[in-house]
Amino acid sequence: MKHVEIYSDGSSRGNPGPGGYGTVLRYVDAKGMAHERELSQGFVQTTNNRMELLGAIVGFEALKGPCEVDFYSDSQYVVKAFNDNWIAGWLRRGWKNSQKQPVKNVDLWKRLLAAVEPHTVTYHWVKGHAGHDENERCDALATAAADGTDLIVDEGFTQNV
């Protein structure tokens, strides 16, 4: 099974406001050749948490087959959902949180669960803005996307407003 590293970050200028995600995928093939791919996109109006989720989603959706993945994010929202089993509780309660309120961003959580399903994933939290090279690169991609001119509509955000 291929081993891939995915680094991801999200950004929102205002919360909500214009936002973007940045994702870096790394893979070393059987010949020892390193491959890297960067993904980013900006949105007209969204939230930071939606961009954190979308950065993870596009990373996993870019994989072409089942992989062993080390996923890195400075988003405790994303990492703890898996490592602390929040998702299992949400599913057991019909997408309600522990306070019996609807889970926010269900559209993206469902998409992320489908994207990670074929993979073996280890989730790692990294401190943001602390000199972690890959996290800094993802942050730069996300903020550049949020500040860019090629912004698209986050349909899930507009449907949940």
Question: Could you explain the architecture of this structure?
Answer:
- The chain has helices spanning 48-61, 76-83, 86-92, 106-116, 133-147, 155-159; strands spanning 2-12, 17-28, 34-46, 67-73, 120-125.
- The protein has 161 residues and is an alpha/beta fold.
- The protein has a five-stranded mixed β-sheet with strand order 3-2-1-4-5.
- It starts with a strand and ends with a helix.
- The radius of gyration is 15 Å and the shape is globular.
- It has a single domain, classed as Ribonuclease H-like superfamily/Ribonuclease H (Nucleotidyltransferase, domain 5, 2-Layer Sandwich).
- The model has no long low-confidence stretch (mean pLDDT 95).
- Strand 1 (2-12) and strand 2 (17-28) form a beta hairpin.
- Helix 1 (48-61) packs parallel to helix 4 (106-116).
- Tell me the count of domains: 1
- Tally of alpha and pi helices: 6
Q: Mean pLDDT, nearest integer?
A: 95
| CATH overall fold name | Nucleotidyltransferase, domain 5
